[in-house]
Amino acid sequence: MGDKTKLAVSPVIQVGGSLFTPDQLAKIGTVVGSDAKIEMTSFKQLYVEVPLDEREAIQEELERAGLEVYPAGFATKSLIACNFCKGAEEAGLETARILNRAIAGIATPTPLKIGYAGCALGTSEPLLKDIAVVKMRDTFDIYVGGEPKGIKAATGRLLVSGISEERLVPVVSTLIDFYKQQAKGKEKFSKFVDRITMEQLKQIVA
């Protein structure tokens, strides 16, 4: 048997949430083969195991089917977004897509989950993610340090509020870059936030 690798596969961000079409699911099954392992993750991606030497060809075929394909493992996950129940424009669908294109698939010390909610209802549970973006009318609030696992589970803390749409990607990208540069080994983002302190992070994104 040859070497295997994993791809992270997700549908496009859209009104209604994480929706695969029947054709897309059939395509996944066809291109990875009947013996492949497919894992449903907690961050709305499918991990599919493929032969290493066929990775590029399989990725291209999945992308032609309208799917998004990213590295698995230690990288920023595709944006974990809400269902945009208030409508694409009001909930900021295009903004979410722009943010996703900017941040998904970046190599990081540990897997990094970034949540997005189009309103304060927060149906995507963004405050349980490492970085959370919540749209508040025409601006955005950013929270950091959410931890969903263990007996010390915690919600993210408000880092900055009233961010304009134009500043959203630069601020989130700055947080990711700073984490990559300053993390100690495989330090989880929530522990990184505690060590660095909220005050220093506020200065970094100011």
TrEMBL record:
<dbReference type="Pfam" id="PF01077">
    <property type="entry name" value="NIR_SIR"/>
</dbReference>
<protein>
    <submittedName>
        <fullName>Nitrite reductase</fullName>
    </submittedName>
</protein>
<feature type="domain" description="Nitrite/sulphite reductase 4Fe-4S">
    <location>
        <begin position="103"/>
        <end position="205"/>
    </location>
</feature>
<dbReference type="InterPro" id="IPR045854">
    <property type="entry name" value="NO2/SO3_Rdtase_4Fe4S_sf"/>
</dbReference>
<keyword id="KW-0479">Metal-binding</keyword>
<keyword id="KW-0408">Iron</keyword>
<keyword id="KW-0411">Iron-sulfur</keyword>
<dbReference type="InterPro" id="IPR006067">
    <property type="entry name" value="NO2/SO3_Rdtase_4Fe4S_dom"/>
</dbReference>
